Amino acid sequence: MSCSYRFDPTRRGLLLGAAGGLALAGTNSRAAFSTTPSEKKLIAVILHGGMDGLNVVVPAYSDDYYAARATIAIPPAGEPNGVINLTDGFGMHPSMPGFAHFYLKGQMVIMHATSAPYDKRSHFDGQNVLENGTDQPLGENTGWLNRALGVAPALPSALGIGSTVTLVLKGQNSIATWAEPKLAEASTDTIAKTMALYGSDPVLQAALQGSIDIGNVIGDLNNLGTGFEFDARAAGKIMSADGGPGACALSYGGWDTHANQGGSSGQLANNLANLDRAMVALREELGDKWKDTVVVIATEFGRTFAENGTGGTDHGIGGVSFLLGGGVKGRRFIGDWPGIAPNQLNLGRELYPANDLRALLKGMFRDHWGISKSDLDNIVFPNSANVPAMTNLFR
């Protein structure tokens, strides 16, 4: 099936529903999907709430870890409900077989003890710093992915999934959005009559045709699964279609596990299983495009090293980030591991943030999209010349 992606709500700020209740919206003056000069796809997954990285990529070698987390620790590999062994005493949470497969297949790198340059443990400020790409809350009112769209040599188009656009994708460079439709499916007769009605207005007709094209790409909504998998499958279908966008942002909340976090099962495990299914689904829908796709997954901060009195963890700093894709030089941990012995913890309470997330993002943008050092240091991540881009991320 050939898809033209003629959605282009110039001058009107149009929001139009058709073809299976599809809704598309553009920001700023122009939002269109068109065949991009580069086939390099980039997807940012933002996990809001502060994911507990120590129970995701587990330091199962450490007696200190098990002593600090008497009720929520994940057992070592080989024990019931134990971690999936990765390397050097680290294991993946048992709810994440897909992530473990990406890693063991050589299509994922893990950066533990990572953080955006923020250490005050406020969700609002931490999320803002994570997505605005500076070293302070409200340092920019736009996001690093949006700014990257304007300086990448291929000038890729971009897509936001969901009813709201997360900050990382907001800015002056135009994007389009897609969200789960709330209206009943329009009949073929209604669509035909609407197309005829808009025939004299090329802008509105192009917008409706673009909506129909996207509706054909998405297909039966019942085949997208539920929850975060729904969003991921929709993103994969749109991005892998002819002329699909080069960038996408997804966000997934609910990671603030102050109480009843659980260990191998429970609240966190359920979220991790949903994230795992979503990323496997995304890879399935991307098909052959996977070899040219990179997915970065990050959260605003980690959690405390020790569990609290309600079976949860409180706000920490050092977390964990992932880079995965068909071209990633994987099966590796990157960055520095500060350790989790009592004298190695930050302020005695949390994993030390040994790695600046911006270094990973810079390396990704430079080597995947060809963005220059100057643009990375000054535009995508303002005033960050002191943060060198990571190297050797891709094959």
Describe the structure.
This protein is an alpha/beta fold. It has one domain: Alkaline Phosphatase, subunit A (3-Layer(aba) Sandwich), CATH 3.40.720. Helices cover 29% and strands 16% of the residues. The protein contains 10 helices and 14 strands. The strands form 2 sheets. Strands 1, 2, 3, 7, 8, 9, 10, 11, 12, 13 and 14 form an 11-stranded mixed β-sheet that branches. Helix 4 crosses helix 10 and helix 7 runs parallel beside helix 8. The longest helix is centred in the C-terminal third of the chain and has 20 residues. It is globular, with a radius of gyration of 21 Å. The N terminus is likely disordered.
Highlighted features:
395 residues, alpha/beta, Alkaline Phosphatase, subunit A, 11-stranded mixed beta sheet, 3-stranded antiparallel beta sheet, 14 strands, globular, disordered N terminus
Quick summary:
The chain is α/β, with parallel strands linked by helices and 395 residues long. The chain is built from ten helices and 14 strands.
CATH class: Alpha Beta
Number of domains: 1
Give the fraction of residues assigned to helices.
25-40%
Structural class: alpha/beta
State the shape.
globular
Question: What is Rg?
Answer: 21 Å
**So how many helices?**
10
User: Strand-residue fraction?
Assistant: 15-25%
In CATH, the architecture is 3-Layer(aba) Sandwich
Distance between the termini: 32 Å
Q: Provide the low-confidence segments as ranges.
A: 1-32
What is the count of β-strands?
14
Largest sheet: 11 strands, mixed
What is the fold-level CATH name, i.e. the topology? Alkaline Phosphatase, subunit A
Rounded mean pLDDT score: 88
Order of helices and strands: EEEEHEEHEHHEEHHHEHEEEEHH
